[in-house]
User: What shape does this take?
Amino acid sequence: MKNHYRPGASCLVFGYFVLGYLVLSAVFLFALGTGPAMAAQAMSAQAMAAQATVTTPRAVQLNPNWVYPSSETIVSRPFEPPAQNWLAGHRGVDFRGEIGQEVFATGTGTVVFADQLAGKGVVVISHGLIRTTYEPVTAEVKVGDLVNVGQLIGHLTPGVSHCATTETVWCLHWGAIRNGKYLNPLLLLYPRVRLLPLK
Assistant: This one.
């Protein structure tokens, strides 16, 4: 029987083996070199995200049932309740405004007053236990109207008020009353937080 062994074929097989080994080695070295770099980049990205979470102020979440009474949200004068009901104070919040500025219902309710009062236009909306007031406003609604949160109820107009004169307007006064007592209306805009006792 003749021997069919061919040295050339063995060399060819060995060459493929060496080539495969070199390719696998190159892939391994590449992974070894880039793996730590990619891991470092991932860790750096996580660190940056964590830092951003810590340093970026958290957005204020407003109560979905209440909105600002106008597009202007800058408070020009805060709520300043008097020490006694008969003393002077600021029983509401003032927002910067101008003649013709739109005024919106801050919550769903029923209009219970929409007329002139002491030389200025006033709108009062009942939301159940709470009533909100808006002045100086020329009403676009009437008593008995049901209004939705964010609905247009009037426009700022001149009047005898700490927010206006008979010729111009510079602010919108927004008030809130619950059970006959004035409260800070800004508290309506933020979700309530319940404090749990420490164990």
